[in-house]
Amino acid sequence: MLYETGTAVEVLGNGCISALIAQILKFLYFLIVHKKVNFKIFTTTGGMPSSHSAGVIALSMTVGYNEGLNSIIFAVALGYAFVVMYDAAGIRRSAGKIAATMNRVMEEFYAHRPSAAGEKLKELLGHTPFEVFMGAILGIVVSYIIHFYILQ
What we know:
Largest sheet: none
Distance between the termini: 12 Å
Oligomer: single chain
Number of strands: 0
Helix content: 55-70%
Number of helices: 4
């Protein structure tokens, strides 16, 4: 069987499954809050929970389950996960705030002729620390369930 414990397919698969579940949860959350369907949620960044965090933590934890939580490769994977999560909550979130400010400036500057402002910048790029944390929890839970209950 290709998808079994201890394989690279399990490590990558658990990361991808966790990220996909996070995207589905974002879609459902948007549907409940806004009471409308938005399929673009599946291809956009930002929102609750962080699919980046879910994916990299699931990948890291699966490495830890297979190689040991005291292994060097687990430490490398977890370090990689922390960089991704820091980027999601820090740098990309700041870029989103800058985009929101630029959009407001352009609207005010071109108030007499809005079409001259051009296309709006994408504002939802990153995550709040809570969204990153919830994505990480999701990744831990999904990887644990798949590794210890589904594949055993």
